[in-house]
From TrEMBL:
The chain crosses the membrane at residues 12-34. This is Cytochrome P450. Belongs to the cytochrome P450 family. It comes from Sistotremastrum niveocremeum HHB9708. Pathway: Secondary metabolite biosynthesis. Its cofactor is heme. CDD domains: CYP64-like. Heme binds at residue 462. SUPFAM superfamilies: Cytochrome P450. It comes from the Eukaryota. InterPro entries: Cyt_P450 (IPR001128), Cyt_P450_CS (IPR017972), Cyt_P450_E_grp-I (IPR002401), Cyt_P450_sf (IPR036396), Cytochrome_P450_fung (IPR050364). GO terms for molecular function: heme binding; iron ion binding; monooxygenase activity; oxidoreductase activity, acting on paired donors, with incorporation or reduction of molecular oxygen.
Length: 541
């Protein structure tokens, strides 16, 4: 969230507005004082709130939180225990530092830990009232989840294998021609899968407007900070204040957010409806659901749930999958020994005569372990979106009051040395062992699967996880079969080292980097028909 400018540096529109702002500011402080004074009174059966750092009146711990990489600060407070209690402007925030605690609360007690805090700032003023990720636990949430799960469950994903394979090969073919643009091609490939599935839209080039809308919409959400903790979320009356109170850029950012929230929800939905009337719509999640729920007068029942579920997949799946694949490429660059081991496994199976397909997945355990290690090594979402408790609860002798935000500290979990020894090392072998009966390499069942952490917990687990892991796997396999990826050299022969400190924000993404792609033998000849030209083959739903 942009830092607020000092009030004396702001261009105040008028004295009357200033007095109004002052009135609401005083009211805000009064409410904070009340919430602060009552914060320790209400305990479940006299049990204490989880321990944590001492905060200030009114502010709580907000002044102690990193403004960018909050997970780093939260990890520093992990010495308080597996649960750490904080307050942000009177809002209770409980950080969950271990997988065991997150599973005990968010999964096993999901009936009271599956909601979301009311996010007035994002939903009322930012236009994100459609998003599945922000919906409270209830009827609309369940309907959207049913819509999404129908198209993204483990069985349904198999219908898209051919299309995802084609996207991966298109990406590799484009990279072979212009390797300096590999990140653009990767973005295009990932967007192609999502746009065709959700809207039947074929991504034709790197300047695709639909992808641009998703990118901008994701960026605008940074202004929200930790969801549910902005003062406007805690005290909606503060939304009546002029937005310049929160900083010079805040008003502009909020208007941009609202514009692009429409651009990834209702706008593409209306485009698909128009195509359906014209008879030009390709099969997609949106067209199938709209047709099934269309009335005789042309209206659509549950239209908000339809465009909400499609829009949520649209924005949530883009940068996460791209960033994961960039992390994989980085790992291969700096660990050539691991890259060769994965390629040896592929070569033994493919014999240089064909490219990998999903039918090979079960025969490539080292590649599967490499995918798991990529998800663990640099989690793209270091802090899961907060769950909201709807009832008072107690756990391990502590009080968990209703109305608390529970934040799974994903970063801390995937770097837990008890689950992952030497956690800072990139080591796919941690997930593998040798079967003593047949001598084959197999995935271990006694190691915590990072997929159980990075995709969330309980009834809020990411419904697109099967799509994400499948599209990532086939792209990884195709890259390894066709290229050697290495650190490039500058004109003086010195290595151009990548920055391994990922960026800040809700999504922690790799910073721009360069990679040298060297074709492996004659494998690229197998890509003679790629990238494909002309219209894509529609997905069969």
């Amino acid at each position: 969230m942009p830092q607020s400018e000092p009030l004396q540096d702001l261009a105040l529109p008028s004295l009357s507005v200033s007095l109004t702002a002052a009135f609401f500011a005083l009211a805000f402080l009064a409410v904070l004082l009340l919430s602060s004074s009552r914060s320790d009174i209400f305990r479940t059966h006299g049990l204490p709130y989880p321990p944590g750092p001492k905060g200030l009146p009114f502010l709580g711990n907000v002044h102690q939180l990193e403004t960018t990489r909050r997970w780093i600060q939260l990890c520093k407070w992990a010495f308080y225990g597996s649960t750490v209690g904080l307050r942000v402007f009177g809002q209770r925030v409980i950080v969950l530092n271990t997988h065991e605690v997150a599973k005990d609360l968010l999964t096993k007690r999901g009936s009271i830990y599956s909601s979301r805090a009311k996010q007035t700032l994002g939903t009322v003023y930012g236009g994100w009232n459609f998003a599945l990720t922000q919906l409270p636990y209830g009827e609309e949430f369940h309907l959207q989840r049913r819509f999404v799960n129908r198209f993204l469950n483990a069985s349904a994903i198999k219908k898209y294998h051919e299309f995802m394979t084609e996207s991966a090969r298109n990406f590799v073919a484009r990279t072979s021609r212009t390797p300096d643009k590999f990140q653009r091609w990767l973005h295009m490939s990932t967007g192609r899968n999502i746009m065709m599935l959700t809207y039947g839209h074929e991504v034709q080039n790197e300047e695709d407007e639909w992808i641009k809308r998703a990118d901008t919409a994701i960026q605008t959400r940074k202004v929200l900070g930790i969801p549910g903790t902005h003062p406007i979320d805690l005290f909606p009356i503060l939304g009546k204040l002029p937005f310049w109170v929160w900083g010079k850029l805040f008003q502009k950012d909020m208007q941009t957010m609202k514009t692009f929230s429409y651009g990834i929800s209702l706008e593409p939905y209306n485009i698909v409806l128009k195509q359906m009337r014209m008879g030009t719509a390709l099969p997609s999640m949106t067209s199938v659901l709209a047709e099934e729920n269309m009335q005789e007068d042309g209206s659509v029942v549950h239209d908000k749930e339809i465009y909400g579920s499609a829009g949520s997949l649209y924005f949530a799946g883009m940068d996460t999958s791209v960033s994961t694949l960039q992390s994989f490429i980085l790992a291969m660059m700096i660990h050539p020994d691991i890259q060769r081991k994965a390629q040896n496994e592929l070569d033994a199976l493919l014999q240089g005569t064909r490219l990998p397909t999903f039918a090979d997945r079960a025969s490539l355990p080292y590649l599967q372990a490499t995918l798991k290690e990529t998800l663990r090594w640099k989690p793209i979402v270091p802090l899961s979106l907060p769950h909201y408790s709807t009832e008072d609860d107690e756990y391990n002798g502590m009080s968990f009051p209703a109305g608390s935000l529970l934040v799974p500290n994903v970063w801390k979990m995937v770097y837990n040395p008890d689950d992952y020894p030497d956690p800072h090392s990139f080591n796919p072998d941690r997930f593998l062992n040798t079967n003593p009966e047949n001598g084959k390499t197999e995935l271990r069942k006694d190691v915590l699967d990072p997929e159980q952490i990075v995709f969330g917990f309980g009834r809020r687990i990411c419904p697109g996880r099967h799509l994400a892991t499948s599209s990532t796997w086939i792209t990884m396999a195709t890259l390894l079969a066709t290229f050697e990826m290495s650190i490039p050299l500058d004109e003086h022969g010195s290595p151009i080292l990548p920055d391994l400190e990922f960026g800040p924000g809700l999504l922690s993404q790799p910073k721009p980097f360069k990679c040298a792609f060297k074709p492996r033998g004659n494998v690229l000849s197998l890509l003679a028909d790629y990238p494909t030209t002309g219209p894509a083959r529609p997905i069969v739903l």
